[in-house]
Amino acid sequence: MQKNTKKVWFFAIPLILILGYFIYDAYSQPSIKELPGDFEEVAFVRNENNKGGIIRIYAVSVGDPQNAAYDQCADMFPVNDYGSSTKIYFFDKLKPYPITLTLEEPHYDTTKYEAISIQRRTGVNK
Length: 126
Fold this sequence. Notes:
The protein is α+β, with helices and mostly antiparallel strands. The protein has helices spanning 2-27, 70-75; strands at 39-46, 55-62, 85-92, 115-122.
């Protein structure tokens, strides 16, 4: 009986440690708030059709435009393969910025809002 208990613990302890690491890793991922620039996601829209490429559009406010890491921030947004695209519009936090976006170009009212940077990431066609 004691031999069986040792076998269970021999497998259970590494399994518990691996699961603990996965949980820790999942909850400790960096976010855009940790990057220089005081980023905050303020709007998002995504197409509903999953038969073609997924299209994601984001609006992000920037509190410190001079020191902002736009490329690093854009790299943190999701992109899938098979022709998907992610477009991120960055807006100065001290000026008006959109809180809703549309899938149709230009995605927001350009007469009211002015993007200070636009980043685009595309997936690989397989």
